[in-house]
């Protein structure tokens, strides 16, 4: 390892002693720092000396272009997540700084959540639970809401990265007819490729599993949701901005959507009085589809492995912004 310690800035919203314990394995090769305050001013102050940043998976301390400009010594950014939409990857690329994520770390966890949510929507599980807790016994009412067996549903998956591919495999194992759309057709996919509008028209259950980018923001707005079959179901494990909250509400109110399972929202958390919170046809989740013990251990391991690679002068894995994966100190 290099004699000069790497100045590592940890933006993780975790207990400082826990983070220090995770990085203790690097000994004198790493000098660990934390922002003095968890706000923009504290972030910019800490970035002045940072060479390697481990990002904030909540997005609270996002690295926008101004933050990148405030980090003249920055050589590498590691996000402890698959999504990197809270980081300006282009600004980092312009500065010659590679940005890595933890690709595939929580694919199984998120795919299982998507399948579980689809089961809950098909069988009205959350609605029935609420009714019984309120001392009801709504057998006939629950059936009248349109319960269905999942194997009879046509599943469309928007996005076919690690999460989409795993979700397709799991839905296929249940006997569903599975189709997918992605910007790059996959020859090896165990599902049928359809163009996006055609996919929507043939999806009783629509699963959204692609990253939020300038190209995908608002991709599934009111016009596209109107292409779904009547009484379709929506499962969003991607980002709220891809399927805007207002569009989801309008589709629910029109009956185009019979239900939605949302792990993500335009604003997180959504306002306390947000109408989605009061809609009985929506299953709400606080952006934790990937949050299992197994996936968290995998993410920590991948982050530490990449930090070790950089500290030892080796290329980083899973660089997503097109920069040379071998970080260069300034």
Question: Could you provide a short overview of the structure?
Answer:
The protein has 330 residues and is an alpha/beta fold.
Give the arrangement of secondary structure elements.
Blueprint: E1 6-10, H1 16-23, E2 30-33, H2 40-47, E3 52-54, H3 65-69, E4 76-78, H4 89-94, E5 99-100, H5 107-122, H6 125-133, H7 139-144, E6 154-158, H8 162-173, E7 177-181, E8 192-193, H9 196-201, E9 205-208, H10 222-225, E10 232-236, H11 245-254, E11 257-262, E12 282-284, H12 293-311
Parallel strand pairs: 1-2, 1-3, 3-4, 4-5, 6-7, 6-9, 7-8, 9-10, 10-11, 11-12
Describe it.
There is one protein chain. This protein is an alpha/beta fold and 330 residues long. It has two domains: 6-104 and 293-311, NAD(P)-binding Rossmann-like Domain (Rossmann fold); 107-284, NAD(P)-binding Rossmann-like Domain (Rossmann fold, 3-Layer(aba) Sandwich). Helix content is 33%, strand content 14%. The chain has helices at residues 16-23, 40-47, 65-69, 89-94, 107-122, 125-133, 139-144, 162-173, 196-201, 222-225, 245-254, 293-311, and strands spanning 6-10, 30-33, 52-54, 76-78, 99-100, 154-158, 177-181, 192-193, 205-208, 232-236, 257-262, 282-284. The strands form two sheets. It has a seven-stranded parallel sheet with strand order 8-7-6-9-10-11-12. The chain has a five-stranded parallel sheet with strand order 2-1-3-4-5. Helix 5 crosses helix 8. The mean pLDDT is 96.
